[in-house]
Write a structure and sequence with these properties.
Structural class: mainly alpha
Family: Belongs to the bacillales FliT family.
Number of domains: 1
Main location: cytoplasm
Pfam families: FliT
Number of helices: 4
Strand content: under 5%
Keywords: Bacterial flagellum biogenesis, Chaperone, Cytoplasm
Function: May act as an export chaperone for the filament capping protein FliD.
């Protein structure tokens, strides 16, 4: 179990070193790796509780969760803003595009 906690510590410290520059893909990879380690921990423990030392180490790792969640939220807002800007540009573009048929015939019904 100590080796898995050490892996979690290393993984978390690596992501925290670059938390403000990390991309959404890198965060996704981090979360997947973290979940795989946690799943292994659950398999190995077989339902036994962690020791006090292990709990202390895990709590120290979890103290970084707020910063990680904050970065995820920042990326989410950034993506939302980009999508809204793109949709506005699309609406403006559609407003200026020709909306009539090129093959149409105009009939003048004015009588003399």
């Amino acid at each position: 179990m100590d080796d898995l906690i050490a892996q979690l510590e290393q993984l978390t410290s690596q992501i925290m070193l670059q938390i403000h520059e990390v991309s959404s893909e890198e965060l996704e990879t981090f979360v997947d790796q973290r979940q795989a380690i946690i799943d292994l921990m659950l398999e190995r423990t077989g339902g036994r509780e962690a020791t006090v030392a292990e709990q202390t180490r895990l709590k120290a790792i979890m103290e970084n969760d707020q910063a990680i969640l904050s970065r995820m939220n920042d990326l989410k807002i950034e993506a939302k803003d980009w999508l809204m800007q793109r949709n506005r540009a699309k609406v403006q573009k559609n407003a200026y595009e020709v909306s009539y048929a090129v093959d149409s015939i105009i009939v003048d019904t004015k009588r003399y």
